[in-house]
Write a structure and sequence with these properties.
This protein has six helices and eleven strands. The chain starts with 13 loop residues before the first helix and ends with a strand. By secondary structure, it is α+β, with helices and mostly antiparallel strands. Helix content is 35%, strand content 29%.
């Protein structure tokens, strides 16, 4: 389980990492949603899969949330439950990375988290570890979070997808706009250039011009296709 370390800096905390990696995770979630439609996920831990009707995807167990107590539990802290070792390799890798990077949310075995915070945590992990998506599954009284790797969930080359996703990302979440914009572009393999009051993203012959406020927040996004 290798970390995509392209964007990581020494003092990055969870908020920094989410700003950098979250937009790509959001794009992948939209792709997964379009693939499975309205089907509800069903978790089969014994088989190591999550099912959406007839579609099945292999998983890694990351952790689970007790929504009644707003408490997060890691899959690696499972001596009483006994999850299969092959399904918690990524969760263990997250813990190891968290200890090295000093991100407490990645290595504290239990901590307070809302459902939204659990999604932010898993969006970050999903991109950091090169997954194709993540999924939240109601399982008894808990909400289990799993990551998915599958060739059925491709990354889009459409620059319109980039524009829609970054616009959605910065509006839905409290993130550093410039970190999010630059990092998302670099993770997609696009060229990124920043000026005082605008940024330009180049994808092949296509361009996105993003105007910025004085505080370096995203103001407008315009796509120019050849």
């Amino acid at each position: 389980m290798e970390v995509n370390s392209l964007l990581i800096e020494e003092n990055d905390d969870l908020q920094d990492l989410f700003s950098k990696y979250g937009a790509l995770a959001l794009e992948k979630q939209e792709t997964l949603s379009s693939l499975v439609g309205d089907a509800e996920p069903e978790l089969d831990i014994e088989k190591g899969i999550v099912k959406f009707d007839e579609k099945e995807f292999p998983i890694q167990l990351i952790g689970f949330l007790d929504p009644d107590e707003d408490a997060w539990f890691w899959a690696w802290d499972n001596e009483e439950i006994g999850f299969p070792e092959e399904l918690i390799e990524e969760a263990k890798a997250v813990k190891e990375f968290g200890e090295k990077q000093n991100v407490p949310q990645f290595y504290e075995n239990v901590f307070t988290a809302s459902l939204t915070e659990a999604h932010i945590l898993n969006m970050t992990i999903s991109s950091l570890f090169g997954n194709d998506a993540y999924c939240a599954v109601n399982y008894g009284t808990f909400v289990f979070f799993v990551t998915i790797k599958s060739d059925e969930i491709p990354i889009s080359d459409d620059i319109d997808v980039f524009a829609v996703t970054i616009n959605d990302f910065h509006r839905r979440f409290e993130v550093n706009h410039i970190k999010a914009l630059r990092s998302y572009a670099l993770l997609k393999g696009y060229e990124y250039k920043e000026r005082d009051d605008f940024s330009v993203i180049k994808a092949g012959d296509d361009r996105i011009v993003v105007s910025l406020t004085e505080r370096k927040n995203i103001q407008t996004i315009k796509v120019f296709k050849v």
